[in-house]
Amino acid sequence: MLEGSQIFFWALIFYVAGIILGNFFASWPLAFFILLLVSIILAVASNSYLRILFIFLACLFFGLWRFQMALPDYADQTKIYHYNSSTVEFSGQVTEAASSLGWQNLTVAAQTLSATKGRPTVSGKVKISAPLYPEYRPGDVLKISCRLEDYRQTENTGYANYLFKENTFSTCGFAQLRYLSSHYSVARFLFQLRGYAKERINLTLKEPAAAIINGMLLNDTKNIPPNLNQLFSRLGLTHIIAISGSHLVIIIYLLLELLIFFGLNRLQAFWPAVGFIVFYVALVGAPASAVRSAVMAILMMYAQKIGRLSDNKNLLVLAAATMSLFNPKVLLFDVGFQLSFLAVVGLSYFSGTLKQWLKFIPEKFDLREIIAATASAQLLTYPLIIYYFGGFSPYSLLANVLILPIVPLLMGIAILNLGVALVWIFGGQIIGILTMLMVAYWLKVSELLVGLPGSYWQVTLPWWVLLSIYGLIGCGYYFLHRKRT
C-alpha cells in the first residue's frame, strides 16, 4: 500500500503526464472532462486499492482536459484571434511594453472591436510592433488599426512557441496607433518602478556592466550587446544572467539575514519573505524560471516553518504541477523553464554522487562543491541545449567553475549598489566600482576561453537521440542508487 506522500507524488506525475500528452491529441475537451468525472465517481465508490488507481486516472484526465482547455477556439467571435488574416480596428489596453532594436514590442489586451464586425466586445492578447516614439506604457488604452496575423505564420519557430505559451495568438506589425487614455494599474506601477531602478543602475555603472546587472536584477536584457549574448551562450553562461533559483536563493538569504538583524526570528520572517518574493518576481515580469524557483522556495520555507521538510522530488513535481495548472503550455513550450527545471533535478540527484567521485579535488574555496554542482546541472541541461541550439562548448564547465564563485558576491554587491543608488547616486557610483571590476573579470575570463581552439562545437541532436540520452541518464541513476541502497 502506498503511503500518503507517495500517492501525492504519483498523482502529480499523472497530472503532469496528462498535460504533456494533451499536446498530441486533437481537441477533445468534452471527452476528457467526462472521463475525469467518471474517474472521480469510481474513485469515491471503489475500495482502497482501486480508489488509488482511479485517483491517478482522474489526475491524468484532468491534465489532458486542462491542456485542451488552454487551446484557442478560433470559432469564438468574442476572441480577437477569430479575426486573424483580416484588417480590423479595435481598442485595447497595453499590458506589457518593452523596446529593442529600434522598436517597441507591445502586448495589448483587446477590449472592443469596430461595430461593423457585429460583436464589439472582444478579448485576447495581440503582440504589436510599434516605432520607439511615442512611448507607450502598461495601462495605456490605444485605438489600433492593422492586419491581424496568426502567430503560427512567424518564420521563427521559437518565437511562435513563445507566443503560444503566452496565450498570444495574434500578431500585428506596422499598426496605426492612437492614444485614447490611461488607467493606473499594478502593471503600470511595476513598470515605472522597474524603469526607475534601471535608471539608477545606469547612472552608477558603465556599459556593459550596467546592461548585465539590469539583466541579473531586473530581467532586462535588451541592452546587452549581441556579441556578449553570443559569448555567454557559447560558454553556457546565460543562466548566470537569467533570473532563476540561484538568484532567488541569494536574495532570500540576504533578506532573511536583514530581517533577523532587525529582530525577527526565522518563523516571523516567513510571511515578509514570501511577500517580497512574490513582489520581486512580479517586478521582473514573472519569467517562468523565476516563478518555478519562487514556488519551490516558498514551499521549502513553508516546510521548514511547519517542521515537515518534504522530499525534493515532491517539491519539484509540485512546482511543475502548480505552474502548469495556471499555464499548461509552460512544460512543453518554455525552454527557459525546462532548462531551469532540469538543472534543479541535476543538482538534487547527481551532485552528491559527483562530489564523492571528485575526492581528488581539494575542498578549499568550496572548489569540489562548485565543480560537482556545475557538472550535475550541465549533465541534465546540456542534451536539451544541444537539441534546441545546435551546439555546445567543451570549455563550459571550466567557464562556470571560474565564474560561479564570484556570482553570490557580485549579486550581493549589485543589490547594495542599487539600494544605495536609489537614495544617493554618488554612493552608488563608489560601490559600482566593485561591481564593474567583478563584471570585468567575468568578461575577461569569457573572452579568453572563447578564443581557445575548438571553443564551440556544432552538433545536431534528433529528438529520439535526446530521449535516449535522458533514458540512459535515468537508468544510470537508478542502478547507482540501487547499488548504494
Give your account of this protein's structure.
The chain has 485 residues and is of the alpha+beta class. The chain folds into three domains: 4-69, no CATH class; 80-183, OB fold (Dihydrolipoamide Acetyltransferase, E2P), CATH 2.40.50; 193-484, no CATH class. Helix 7 crosses helix 19 (425-450). Strand 1 (87-100) and strand 2 (103-113) form a beta hairpin. It is built from 20 helices and nine strands. The strands form two sheets. It has a seven-stranded mixed β-sheet with strand order 5-6-3-2-1-4-7. Strands 8-9 form a two-stranded antiparallel ribbon. Helices cover 61% and strands 12% of the residues.
Features of the shown structure:
485 residues; OB fold (Dihydrolipoamide Acetyltransferase, E2P); 3 domains; 20 helices
Strand/helix succession: HHHEEEEEHEEHHHHHHHHHHHHEHHHEH
> Which percent bin holds the helix content?
55-70%
Poorly predicted residue ranges: none
Radius of gyration: 24 Å
Distance between the termini: 21 Å
Helix-strand makeup class: alpha+beta
**Number of separate helices:** 20
Count of β-strands: 9
Note the overall shape. Answer: globular
What would the average pLDDT be, to the nearest integer? 84
Number of domains: 3
Strand content: 5-15%
Order of strands in the sheet with the most strands? 5-6-3-2-1-4-7
The major β-sheet equals:
7 strands, mixed
Short description:
With 485 residues, this protein is α+β, with helices and mostly antiparallel strands.
